Amino acid sequence: MGVGTEAGRRAAADPGDAFNSDCPGRTVLDHVCSRWGTLILLSLRDRPARFYELRDTIGGISEKMLSQNLRTLTRDGLLHREVEPATPPKVTYSLTELGQELATPLAGLLDWVRARAVDVVKAQRRHDRQHKPAS
Q: Which residues are CB-neighbours of 124 under 8 A, at least 6 positions away?
């Protein structure tokens, strides 16, 4: 048991323990598991793409959200941003080795969602019918 200032200190966060509120991995989890982060990473799995291609591929994403997420994922080391000098500049995004490694399990998650979305919607409807608020 610690005494004095040592007693109030928490152990350093384990970067792999996402259940710990101080875990730096939670930030990565937020970036990767966000709707847009996941879709961006998966859309780049098979080939590099330019900004407008990503925008057109990912239905419903605004240019602002796409820009923010591309910056974040690039900063996280998951994307590579290549700028070719031209007017206007030609920017291409691709997965880094780290991003490619991550895209594999994310693809499995997306496959599960595709296969089970109907079952989840049925479960939601069943739950909502059973838990209707009293009128």
A: none
Give the dihedral sign, CA 106/96/50/25: positive
Radius of gyration of the chain (CA): 20
Tell me the mean pLDDT in the region 12-23. Answer: 76
List, for residues 67-102, the tens digit of each pLDDT value: 999 999 999 999 999 999 998 889 999 999 999 999
Give residues with Cβ within 8 angstroms of 68, minimum separation 6: none
pLDDT at 133: 81
For the record, the structure tokens of 7 come out as 């007693």
Give bridge partners of residue 95 from the DSSP assignment: 79
Say if residue 99 is exposed, middle or buried (CB neighbours under 10 Å; 0-12, 13-18, 19+): buried
